[in-house]
Amino acid sequence: MLTLLIGKMPTPLGELLVVADEQGRLRSVEWQEFEGRMQRLLALHYGKPGFVLREAVNPHGLATALEAYFSGELSIIDTLPVATGGTEFQRRVWAALRTIPCGQTLSYGALAQQLGVPGASRAVGTANGANPVSIVVPCHRVIGANGTLTGYAGGVNRKQWLLHHEGVTGHAPAQHKQQLSLL
Question: Ramachandran region of residue 24, left (φ > 0), alpha (ψ -120 to 50) or beta?
């Protein structure tokens, strides 16, 4: 059985739940009011009897690292270890999200194209919406092709705040040329 450590932390956007495994890898980052969604995703990825949640203060220092992100040390999220369940396609999308540079955005269609599945923007959007490790796996950096702030499980206001915090001045997607062949 997988033991997961869960801690809570305040942020400028509300209380955040931080879930890590015993090896110190993030398994979930979710807003407190969406704890039910987090529980459903954990059950989906690891099976209902397949994990147990244990309360912990600042599991493996990950809450401290996220506090640093909210305090302006934006690049710290690039260093945090993540382990997720999900399908192979979802994990490819989530890995690709981590390559979008801080301060930039990308459209769902452009992300699908870079993953080698042009025309699969809806599938990319669905995978993006199932991301269990928000902020660190920066699904908030993906926007509509026309620059609109579409879909964010934590709410569009949070998405807008996170993008502004990261220095995004407009909402038009930037070109992102990162090579994704290693995925």
Answer: left
Average pLDDT over residues 102-114: 93
Question: What's the CA gap between 33 and 177, in Å, rounded?
Answer: 35
Phi (first) and psi of residue 18, to 5 degrees: -120, 120
Give the pLDDT band (50/70/90) at residue 44: confident
> What are the structural domains, with CATH classification, of the chain?
2-79 (3.30.160), 88-165 (1.10.10.10)
Instruction: For 51, list phi and psi in degrees, rounded to 5.
Output: -150, 160
- Matching residue, tokens 């579409």: 150
Cα distance between residue 87 and residue 38, in whole Å: 17
Number of H helices, E strands in the chain: 6, 6
Question: 139 catalytic, yes or no?
Answer: yes
Reported pTM: 0.87
CA dihedral 102, 117, 183, 78 (to 10 degrees): 10
For residue 180, what pLDDT band results from cuts at 50, 70 and 90?
Answer: very low
**121: enclosing H helix or E strand:** helix 121-129
Where does 10-120 have alpha helices with state H? 35-46, 62-70, 88-97, 108-114
Query: Which listed residue (16, 42, 120, 139) is catalytic?
Result: 139
Percent of the chain with pLDDT over 70: 92
